[in-house]
Amino acid sequence: MTKKRAIVFSGGRLNEEDLHQIQPDDFIIGADKGALFLIEHGITPHISVGDFDSITPEEKEKVELASQRMIACDPVLKDLTDTEFALEIAMDEQVDHVLLLGVTGTRMDHTLANVQILVRAMQHHISCAIMDAHNYIELTGSTLEIQPMGYTYTSLLPMTAEVTGIQLEGFMYPLHNATLKMGQSRAVSNKLTASKGTISIKSGLLLVIQSKD
């Protein structure tokens, strides 16, 4: 069975290179200003969502006319950020993977909230990743394979109080049955040395960040 992927363009930092991530069968979601970004670059979102408080009324009308479907919500009377709203819609589409673009930027509160919603996808047994010009961020609770993607470093950060039984293969600094606790930076800036790397853990949730300067 062919795997189905959703790609979300949110209202954070985006550039034209992000458009190259779109594959022919992707289900495309634009969140708030991310929807406008898509439309201004000739891409028709399957769904545009959000409160659209980051764009003008004229731009919002453009988004509504150019999207296959638009779901707008009140900017005050809502419980979810636009990005989380977009993720919920993606999961409703029964996709296997979600790629989040434009979810990092100058607002650290939004960036951290978006990193944490990776847990929501995992709870629904959907793989999810955040990508920007310098980072590729994933979350694992079991095993994760790392492929060379042009990033220099691979860093591991615990998303739970502790992560146990960490095994690393294919990296410059291997770990064997290691434990990472919240607040430790021991596993930052490792490097892939093999054609692929494998990260496995026994318990907890581990954030895996591939990055470059």
Question: How would you characterize this protein structure?
Answer:
The protein has 213 residues and is of the alpha/beta class. The chain is 21% helix and 31% strand. It contains 5 helices and 13 strands. The chain has helices at residues 33-40, 57-66, 82-92, 108-116, 118-123, and strands at residues 5-9, 27-31, 47-50, 70-72, 97-101, 127-131, 135-140, 143-146, 153-158, 162-169, 178-181, 197-200, 206-211. The strands form 2 sheets. A 9-stranded mixed beta sheet has the order 4-3-2-1-5-6-7-13-9. Strands 8-12-10-11 form a 4-stranded antiparallel beta sheet, with no helix packed on it. Strand 6 and strand 7 form a beta hairpin. The radius of gyration is 18 Å and the shape is elongated. 35% of the residues are buried. The mean pLDDT is 94.
